[in-house]
Amino acid sequence: NVAFSALQTLDVNSYKFAEDDVYTLFFNENVKGTLQTLKIEAIESLRPQFSYDRTIKFTNYTALKSVALNKTRVQLTTAAFQGCTSLATVTGIADITNAPSAFAQTTALKSINVYSEIIPNHAFEESGIKSVLYNKAQVAPTEIGESAFAGATAIVLMDLSKATLIGKNAFNGATAF
Question: pTM of the predicted model, to two decimals?
Answer without folding.
Answer: 0.87
